[in-house]
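anyone seen this seq b4? input:
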Amino acid sequence: MADIATADPPAPRKSSKLPLLIGLVLAVAGGGGGFFAVTSGFLDGADSAAHEAPSVPDMPDVIFLEVEPILVTLSPGSQVRQLRFRSQIEVVTAHADQVRTLMPRIIDVMNSYLRALEPADFEDPQVLPRLRSQLLRRIQVVTGQGRVENLLVMEFVLN
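predicted toks r here
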C-alpha cells in the first residue's frame, strides 16, 4: 500500500513547437510575396485606377451677391440685445441681374424673419442651420425657383 502513495504522477506531455514554426515561416513568406507583388507592378491592373488623375467636375456657373448687413434689436428683457447678420447669396450667373433687382425684397424678407425671432430661439444649438434654411426658403420664394442656389452666412454676432 505504501507503494501507491509514493508513486509519482505521470509527467505532462511536452507540446511541439512545430505548428508555431510553420506559422511563422508562412507569415514571413506571405508578407514578402505580397510586398514583391505590389512593388514589382504585378498587381498594377487592379491598382490602375489609383494612378489615373480623377475627373474633376466643372465649377458651377454661379456668382455671389453681397446682402447689406442687417442689425436686429431683439425684444427687451433679454441678455442679448442685438443681432448683427451679414450674408451672401449664391446665384446662378444667368439670373444675377434679376436677383439684384429683387434685392430690396430679399432684405425685407430677411429683416422680417429675423425680427420675429425670440431670444429663446438663439439658445438652441441648431439655430444657425435652421435660420439659414428658413431664410433661403423665403429668398427662393421671392426670387423664384432655380435662381438662388444657397445662402452663405458670413457674420452672425449676438451682442
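The two ends are 99 Å apart (CA to CA). Strands lie at 62-73, 82-92, 148-158. kinda curious what u guys think
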